[in-house]
Amino acid sequence: TLTGGDSSSTTTGSASPVPNSYESLEGGGYSDLAAPPAGVPAKQAPPFGYNYPTVHPAYQQNPAPKPDPSPSHGGYNPPGYQPYSQPFPSLSELSSALGGLGGVSEQEAETLRPVNLLQERNILPPKRAPPPEPNLSNDLRKVNCSPDTFRCTLTNIPQTQALLNKARLPLGLLLHPFRDLTQLPVITSNTIVRCRSCRTYINPFVSFLDQRRWKCNLCYRVNDVPDEFMYNPVTRSYGEPHKRPEVQNSTVEFIASSDYMLRPPQPAVYLFLLDVSHNAVESGYLNVFCQSLLDNLEKLPGDTRTHIGFVTFDSTVHFYNLQEGLSQPQMLVVSDIDDVFIPTHDSLLVNLKESKELVKDLLNALPGMFTHTRETQSALGPALQAAYKLMSPTGGRVSVFQTQLPTLGAGHLQSREDPNLRSSTKNVLHLGPATDFYKKLALDCSGQQIGVDLFLLSSQYSDLASLACVSKYSAGSVFYYPSFHHVHNPAQTQKFQKDLQRYLTRKIGFEAVMRIRCTKGLSIHTFHGNFFVRSTDLLSLANVNPDSGFAVQMSIEESLADTSLACFQAALLYTSSKGKRRIRVHTLCLPVVSQLSEVFAGADIQAISCLLANMAIDRSISSSLSDARDALVNAVVDCLTAYRANGSNIQPSGLIAPAALRLFPLYVLALLKQKALRTGTSTRLDERVFSMCELKSQPLQQIMRMVHPDLYRIDNMTEQAALHLNDSVIPQPPLLQLTAEKLTREGAFLLDCGSVMYLWVGKGCNETFIRDVLGFQNYASLPSNMTEIPELQTTYSERTRAFISWLLESRTFLPAFHVVKDDASTKTSFFQHLVEDRTESAFSYYEFLLHIQQQMSK
User: Fold this and answer.
1) In angstroms, rounded to a whole number, what is the distance separating the alpha carbons of residues 569 and 833?
2) Domain boundary pick from 461, 484, 506
3) First CA to last CA distance, the chain
4) Are residues 188 and 167 in the same domain?
5) What 3 state SS string does 665-712 have?
6) What is the domain extent for residue 804?
7) What CATH number is associated with residue 162?
8) What is the pLDDT of residues 292-338, one digit of tens each?
9) Cα(520)–Cα(246) distance, rounded to whole angstroms?
């Protein structure tokens, strides 16, 4: 049940009863629409791939790239790629065919330009394309929410579900609500102004009828402006409510009053749960972890109340008494794993400030304590149960480090992977959990405001499909380091170190909830990400971190014909690590359109691809991998068929997409070649499941780099078109298509896949580059396991490092780095990312286009 908006949570200052649950605390939705009446099933969204396909985003600004005359294209004229044989229609023909778009803006005309994908080879923009700009007035555009925070698959919202169905595109939002911001208006005010009916927070898109009344932009209710709101703290003047910071910024943070708390804000509490079995000790991760935590102990987010604790486990569970005043940490062993109890309650989670020296002693001692262990078993389940009991009184964060399949006690697992089926083209089994133990535990944790993060460092199958549930449902994160070894795998060790540095020091929100509201008529029906849905529209996030993304799918329940704008608002209520209750609010505004052509013109292809990826992952678990793959292909077929059916009198033969959607087939092919969704290429089950976790929980930018990486030639970078930032010159080499055709033996190519970067060096690469950038005399002397670029005092080294640093600028987790020689073992992974090329089991891009065309003519 969902409590109504007004009953339990009213504006500050009223004597509201103590709310008994988070639903009432953030304030429900429209009380009359909040939940379907009992016994009436909620409207089901049509299955994806039948009713949902998608369009392409933001290449509005640049005109069509000219065909590249360079000879490297020689190999790419299979039958059908004859250069432009038929003339394309003029803009006036185009606009009349698409329903007389009278005043078509230049931008919209470009997004609607028909592109014959079988003829136009160079559809990739030369730089990473910006998201499409919504077609709004300048005033609205200036205050709209940043696309890095909030993106919609369609920047022109269709008026009706019928129009949306006609376009065959999915409607949904991609959010990155807690990302690191350089600027954030923080508002301290006794009154947080919200709509009395739907509880929307006042924002730049409301309208003021006069100084005393404002109209909600989501439900259109007229509300009174409270007295306090008449004063503007920024300009220190009275009588200009429309100039308050809440109404001038689409992302704001309110300091919340006690009305927004169920209990006093909790302190930051961190518990580390460490696998110390023989396997774990052999991998050497403990040394890296202990050193990293020692280095970052002072930087853990928190205040004087911060608490910390440690539990280690093998076939038994070990606790550490860190009570201030002890001369050294005291280890307490609980060997009854079938009924784990907490040996003492007051000194296992200790105040970090008071017990800092003991904590340091323990971290220095841990790596050596288990060096000669013979314990091969792993009682992860019981250790997690202990962590739950230990953390329940406060809530907080549990960080689990695991190196193998759990073998003892509750939650123990058996191997389910058949290595012979890794490259099967049939259905992949065991993508879902083997037991509900980890999900149930996560839901218990979530109820006590405990988030669980999992670091899996393992070279054998560990059943990530089961283990990941502990993070998935407690709003945690999953990190995976296949074949981790501190000596044999330096690239993974460096990545683990960098990840820990970010993980331990990034900001964190505790005991959080998030609600997304949208204009009356729109409704949200499916959520994607790591959280627990506590009521129809409230996401429970025991912890929230700045690196997680979320997605939602929407439908249009009632016509939006009466409004020209649709708005979406995400409100995240959380406790900061300093014990302050805060509400971060983001509001996005988009135009509503009535023409199909406008829906296509405003499609954001990257957002569409990410939403479809989320839908495909769900489908592969609930149905089967082949169903999910078929649905992705159908998404492209349905959308291009819908486009053809509605502008067919102007289209030459071929495979035609509007320019806004021209990368749709390419992105879907790239998705089908991801570890999560591919078939026929040898893929370990845990790696496949981890790829699925990433697609479901990463922000859009990170997903796009993973799905369609960026390839650059970097051995011949010049200053032409370079950026000049803070005294350094940053070259801007153009993006290349992901095909081996673009590689030459004489070059060096950088492939940026988000969490990993490859520098492929050709056999005939210029020796100056090898010497000046890599620090070796020639190709032959390059080692095969280089994992970083040395800092050399040469112009070319500085230029190359400046370019790479610029690529990494906004990235929070730094990628693993591999220098790939033409004959090295890493070569296979590098070539697997060249998604336009064919493999034994998958289409090349051109074959895929022919396949789409064939499916359309059925």
Assistant:
1) 36
2) 506
3) 47
4) yes
5) HHHHHHHHCCCCCCCCCCCCHHHHHHHHHHHHHCCHHHHHHHHCCEEE
6) 709-834
7) 2.60.40.1670
8) 999 999 999 999 999 999 999 999 999 999 999 899 999 999 999 99
9) 22
